[in-house]
Amino acid sequence: VRGHCPLKQVLHQEEDSTLVFEARFESGNLERVVKINEFEYQLTLRSDLYTSRYTDWYYFQVSNTRAGVHYRFTIVNFTKCNSLYQHGLRPLLYSETDAKKHHVGWRRTGDEIKYYRNNAGEGRCRYFSLTWTFQFPHDRDTCYFAHCYPYTYSNLQEYLVGISKDPVKSTFCKIDALCHSLAGNVVPILTITNPLRSRRGAERKAVILTARVHPGETNSSWIMKGFLDYILGNSQKARLLRDRFVFKVVPMLNPDGVIVGNHRCSLTGQDLNRKYTSNMKRLYPSIWYTRNMIKRVMEEHGVFLYCDIHGHNEKQNVFLYGCERKQQAKSPYVHPHIFPLLYLSKSCPDKVS
């Protein structure tokens, strides 16, 4: 993306202990690495394409590892002044050897974790560093580090193929292309509801869910996967919900940003979550088509609930932002506080704020 670089770092001697870094894969993000000393490395993240901002998401590969050695990594160009790393969050590590031999996947790692303002930048543009120490679990292993559990566009495609091939789920889950992204990637939309048994079923209201408008908020995709696993399941409650409602689901609003490893923006260098009032269909197709889908569903069914799933860099637990207008009726059944209070906070007080 930013000029030519060698396909692979060359180790000049067999005993060379220099780590080999790579991030040119789906959702990867790492721009530069400087070796400070034998076991310490300074890392710089790539900003979102066509911007100079939004350096929060990282996902990269490390090979030529040594076990039993204390390494230190320091990422030097975060742009947020506050972070959950100040409150106990730890980087994620994945070992190919552990995955193959012990079926161990992603896990939190790191000691001596500090997130602090550094001396780089000037004026309003200030940078912050994240530093941590750790040990690789195996010699000559290939490992990955990430800010949050990765969920790629390919992961979504594999999941949707599984649904389409399922002889039961495919009877009440229809998968279509909502539109194509700026780079030509399909933005899928799922329609989930049980087949009508009588004319009364035509009165079903709609529940609309969207996710991953911000690529670096991968937890929103995992929440969406959990919801789809549930609503496509065979439990009595899931069947009842499919009888009562029509679910419209757009699981990945910004596939281009996800693929290239952006944190917040699309390939236009813009935050799509700020473009819902824009009529620029060509530049923001997923937002334009989602908005028009919602308008059409409002006319055909009425919308009982709309939820857009995100992640957050500072807040803990599960929480909701709501839209409340002064002219809105104050009847309890339409009040936006009721759903998060009764259905989430009261049900799971240990997980929902």
TrEMBL record:
Domain Peptidase M14: 149-353
InterPro entries per the UniProt record, alphabetical: Cytosolic_carboxypeptidase, Pepdidase_M14_N, Peptidase_M14
Gene3D superfamilies assigned to the protein according to its UniProt record, in alphabetical order: 2.60.40.3120, Zn peptidases (3.40.630.10)
Key words of the record: Carboxypeptidase, Hydrolase, Protease
UniProt key word Ribonucleoprotein: no
UniProt-annotated location(s): Cytoplasm, Cytosol
SUPFAM superfamilies: Zn-dependent exopeptidases
GO MF: metallocarboxypeptidase activity; zinc ion binding
Organism superkingdom: Eukaryota
GO (cellular component) term, any one: cytosol
GO biological process: proteolysis
Cofactor: Zn(2+)
Catalytic reaction(s) noted: (L-glutamyl)(n+1)-gamma-L-glutamyl-L-glutamyl-[protein] + H2O = (L-glutamyl)(n)-gamma-L-glutamyl-L-glutamyl-[protein] + L-glutamate
Family recorded in the similarity comment: Belongs to the peptidase M14 family.
Name of protein: CBPC3 carboxypeptidase
Organism: Ceyx cyanopectus
Organism lineage: Eukaryota, Metazoa, Chordata, Craniata, Vertebrata
